[in-house]
Write a structure and sequence with these properties.
Order of helices and strands: HHHHH
Number of strands: 0
Number of helices: 5
Oligomer: single chain
Largest sheet: none
């Protein structure tokens, strides 16, 4: 397998392929997965729950779409905890 990897990209030293995969996973794939997960989580929560917390479902989703990870961070640390508490009846 090592011979195949070096044949595919002879300019990269041994081990760099794995390092590049890790960097791509951390910087691209994981944030993208978190972004999609957040959008699905927000969209799947009932509108009545959003109304009970005084949050705007459409605005939160729009912020995640426009601001990317900043909107996702706001959702996970500000909006979502309120939704979870409302769902538990607190």
């Amino acid at each position: 397998m090592h011979a195949l990897a070096s044949d595919l990209n002879p300019l990269l030293p041994h081990g760099v392929e794995v390092a590049l995969l890790v960097v791509v996973a951390v910087l691209v794939i994981l944030p993208l997965a978190l972004w999609v997960l957040s959008l699905v989580d927000a969209a799947g929560r009932p509108s009545a729950l959003w109304a009970a917390t005084g949050q705007a479902k459409g605005m939160s989703i729009a912020l995640m779409l426009v601001l990317g990870l900043v909107g996702v961070a706001f959702y996970w640390f500000v909006t979502r905890p309120r939704l979870v508490l409302a769902a538990r009846g607190r």
